[in-house]
Amino acid sequence: MAGIDWEDPFCGEGNNCFRIGTDDDGNAYIAVAGQEDTPLKDSRDALRALILEIKAGKADHLL
C-alpha cells in the first residue's frame, strides 16, 4: 500500500507478528506482517488509545 510508513515488525510469543504504520493524512494502520496490503485503518489517536489500553493490561483476556 503506497504512502504508508511501516514500522519494523513486532513479534510476540509464537511468532504472531504485526506492523504499525502511519500516513501523511493522520491515519494509522495495523497489519499482520506480510499482509500489509490489507491493513486495518483508523486515526492515530485511536491507535494510540488502543496501544495504551493494551499496555494497561485491558486486553489480556484476549491472549
Provide a short characterization of the protein structure.
The protein is α+β, with helices and mostly antiparallel strands.
Care to describe what's here?
The chain is α+β, with helices and mostly antiparallel strands and 63 residues long. The chain has one domain. 19% of the residues lie in helices and 32% in strands. The chain is built from 1 helix and 5 strands, in the order βββββα. Strands 1, 2, 3, 4 and 5 form a 5-stranded antiparallel β-sheet that branches. It starts with a strand and ends in an 8-residue tail after the last helix. 6% of the residues are buried. The mean pLDDT is 86.
Radius of gyration: 12 Å
Class from helix and strand fractions? alpha+beta
Gap between N and C termini: 28 Å
The rough form would be described as: flat
| Count of domain modules | 1
Mean pLDDT: 86
Q: Strand percentage, roughly?
A: 25-35%
Number of helices: 1
